[in-house]
Specification:
The protein contains 9 helices and 15 strands. It is an alpha/beta fold and 266 residues long. It has a single domain (3-75, 87-157, 185-265), classed as Alpha-Beta Complex (Spore Coat Polysaccharide Biosynthesis Protein SpsA, Chain A).
Length: 266
């Protein structure tokens, strides 16, 4: 089953970083957030990726093309004109298959999805954004999707408020709560779609996934929500970037498996 990742936005709320690189290449703990996201999928057996490229997409291509050069011992033989890597490949990425799709510099999210339709094989695909981390159980979400039989599943999450709140009665403060979870559900960005969802999106530059396509899918009664009550965090701003990296340095990495979390903490 392909995993489509939207990697083409400009990341305008993170200009401190994205003037130089696309947001999916911004590091969390020394590794691009895109790799963290792909590992969430690959650890659960989903290793066929389609990356929807746009803004500075060439840098995403180069980061994968140069991966072995940066991470492995190598012999460069100028006499023979050969580049040879030493030892066997032990990377977790060795089984990955990645399609790099140029979906337009300024194309909106729905247009990007429409443009990768030729690369979606089979009757179903997963979709996510290039800036969200979670400890989501993808197989549980897939079981939910298969059971309800509709076209789409969106993950619903309840993020913490960025502010503390007060419980007030008249002019009396009854209690304080520091950054409680919002009572409202928001789009957590981990989708599962039947292939026929591609009929809802158009390859036009201004087609926004979260507007007409998902609104129409919802109106047709073809969109269900899988509620995720575990960890979820979106790197939307520079403040989010700092907090994610501070958490990583302190070993607060709920999207990683337990062994990796212990390694970070140590």
């Amino acid at each position: 089953m392909p995993v489509v990742i939207l990697c083409g936005g400009e990341g305008t709320r993170m200009r401190e970083m994205t003037d130089r690189i696309p947001k999916p290449l911004v590091d969390i703990g020394g590794k691009p957030i895109l790799l963290h996201i792909m590992e969430i999928y690959s650890r659960q057996g989903f290793t066929n990726f389609i990356l929807c490229l746009g803004y500075k997409g060439i840098l995403i291509k180069e980061s994968f093309l140069d991966y072995e050069v940066r991470s492995r011992d190598m012999v460069l033989d100028f006499r023979q004109g050969e580049r040879k890597f030493i030892g066997s490949e032990t990377s977790a990425y060795k089984d990955w298959r990645i399609t790099f799709a140029e979906t337009g510099e300024t194309t909106q999210t729905g247009g990007r999805v429409a443009r990768i339709a030729p690369y979606v094989t089979g009757d179903r695909f997963m979709l996510t954004y290039g800036d969200g981390l979670s400890d989501i159980d993808l197989h549980a979400a897939l079981d939910f999707h298969e059971a309800h039989g509709r076209v789409g599943t969106v993950t619903g999450v309840q993020p913490s408020s960025q502010f503390g709140v007060m419980a007030v009665e008249g002019d009396r403060v009854r209690a304080f709560a520091e950054k409680p979870r919002s009572p409202d559900m928001v789009n957590g960005g981990f989708f599962i779609f039947e292939r026929r969802f591609l009929n809802y999106v158009k390859p036009e530059v201004n087609c926004i996934l979260e507007r007409e396509p998902l609104e129409r899918l919802s109106a047709d009664g073809q969109l269900k929500v899988y509620t995720h009550r575990g960890y979820w965090r979106c790197m939307d701003t520079f403040k989010d970037y700092r907090e994610l990296n501070d958490g990583y340095a302190a070993g607060v990495t709920p999207w990683l498996p337990a062994v990796a979390q212990q390694s970070v903490a140590s």
